[in-house]
Design brief:
CATH architecture of the largest domain: Up-down Bundle
Structural class: mainly alpha
Shape: elongated
Helix content: 55-70%
Distance between the termini: 41 Å
């Protein structure tokens, strides 16, 4: 197996990273850092910090020069960061020493690495947002279509009371809808430019340091934090937290689908997939299994990343390196879960007969609560509860149907609505339709 499933041609369909995978490559990282170097030179040239002719040359070269990431391995291993080797290679490739000397003027490696990372994370969020919108819209359509399709709600893994499949879908989709709503604020609070120099003091950037940072932010379409954040990993943590909550919301949907597709349950169809190598009857829930596994991976990585935010003083190599090891895997795992969720949202469908059968073949015990409230109209509530609990024990001991026992015990009560799942779903259909309306409004 490859060191990372996201780099494996064999596992590429099981753990797909899609277009986001291309953002977490050496080539993409080098390209992003060169864009930052070019934009920095252009801004400094306009401000008169460096010669304008040199700035124009550096800016153009940053878009045209090709730097082989493999050629940076030696200096990166020696220096602990890629930027010294990148700047040296960039200056050499320009073949214009008089201009090249002004590249990377006043910046530090972390400025270039972190700002380049933000450019890639911005693209990642845009790609994820587009997919997530489609997932929410598809789930909204499904919730609306099955707002009144009865199914058994489960608590502690056991049948509780009737709900609707549409409401279950709405419970999957509502956290995803919330995450979409958070994106504008997340971009504002996390997609930051970094330009603070070697120790965060901006000393080498000169008197116009603050103006240069603001102009660089504008040139790159990022936000100016108006301070150094070299050792404050808040922006990274906010993006990672959003990723983790997305992965976990998708993982919850996956866990539910793993239960609803079990043998003996079979209340949901996932579409054609999941063949076994030896058992012809099997249709394994591959996508939900992958989503649940990816959510677990993200949860672990998220915890590690939070620990990596403990930077010592003004920069901490070990903490920063830990971030490099963890963040790409966290983002790719979240994206893979989202890609699977997107696919499932287009193909999954309920099995209404199986859902209804699950309630009736359970001796109608799922209606015990409704029955106790019906009886409470004629008896004190504690007495009604005790009476129905006794009937449930009798049903469990004898295998009798609760509806038959109740009708025999209370022949004068109209119990038809009590044992009609369609009339016992409470506000579940309304909840499904409210979510569907919110999804349509996207």
């Amino acid at each position: 197996m490859a060191g990372s499933v996201f780099d494996s041609p064999m596992y590429a369909r099981l753990f797909p990273a899609g277009e986001v995978g291309r953002l977490f490559t050496d080539t993409a990282e080098v390209r992003a850092m060169l864009l930052v170097e070019g934009a920095l030179a252009k801004v400094q040239g306009a401000q008169g910090v460096i010669p304008e002719t040199a700035a124009a040359f550096i800016h153009r070269a940053a878009m045209e020069v090709q730097i082989d990431p493999a050629g940076l391995a030696g200096p990166t291993g020696e220096n602990g960061v890629s930027v010294p080797g990148l700047v040296a290679a960039f200056r050499s490739a320009m073949e214009a020493p008089d201009h090249a000397q002004y590249a990377h003027w006043g910046a530090t490696s972390q400025d270039i690495i972190d700002t380049g990372l933000m450019l890639r994370l911005r693209q990642m969020l845009a790609l994820q947002e587009a997919m997530l919108r489609e997932v929410v819209c598809a789930l909204g359509t499904l919730a609306d279509r099955h707002a009144a399709t009865p199914m058994a709600a489960r608590t502690y893994g056991q049948h509780a009371t009737p709900t609707s499949f549409g409401a279950t879908v709405a419970h999957w989709g509502a956290p995803l809808l919330d995450l979409l709503g958070e994106l504008p604020a997340l971009r504002q609070s996390a997609l930051w430019v970094s330009l603070s120099g070697a120790a965060g003091t901006a000393a080498a950037l000169g008197a116009t340091a603050f103006e240069t940072r603001a102009a660089l932010a504008a040139a790159l379409g990022l936000h100016d934090p108006k301070r150094s954040w070299h050792s404050d990993r808040g922006p990274i943590l906010r993006i990672a937290d959003w990723q983790a909550r997305l992965a976990l919301a998708l993982g919850k949907m996956a866990e539910d689908l793993l239960i609803l597709t079990q043998t003996g349950v079979g209340e949901v169809s996932l579409g054609a997939a999941g063949a076994s190598s030896t058992m012809p009857q099997k249709q394994n829930p591959v996508a939900p299994s992958a989503m649940a596994a990816l959510a677990r991976q993200v949860a672990g990585l998220h915890a590690t990343l939070q620990g990596a935010a403990l930077h010592r003083l003004d920069r901490d190599g070990a903490a920063w390196f830990t971030e490099w090891l963890v963040l790409p895997q966290l983002c790719l795992a979240t994206t893979a879960a989202l890609i699977h969720g997107h696919s499932l949202s287009q193909t999954l469908a309920p099995m209404p007969d199986a859902m209804l059968g699950a309630m009736t073949t359970g001796q109608n015990l799922i209606h015990a609560e409704a029955l106790s409230f019906a009886l409470a109209r004629h008896l004190p509530r504690p007495a009604a509860q005790a009476a129905i609990k006794a009937l449930c024990k009798e049903a469990s001991a004898t295998g009798a149907d609760l509806a038959d026992l109740a009708r025999a015990a209370y022949p004068d009560l109209d119990l038809g609505p009590v044992f009609d799942a369609a009339q016992q779903m409470g506000h579940a259909p309304d909840e499904a339709r409210r979510f569907a309306a919110a999804a349509r409004a996207l």
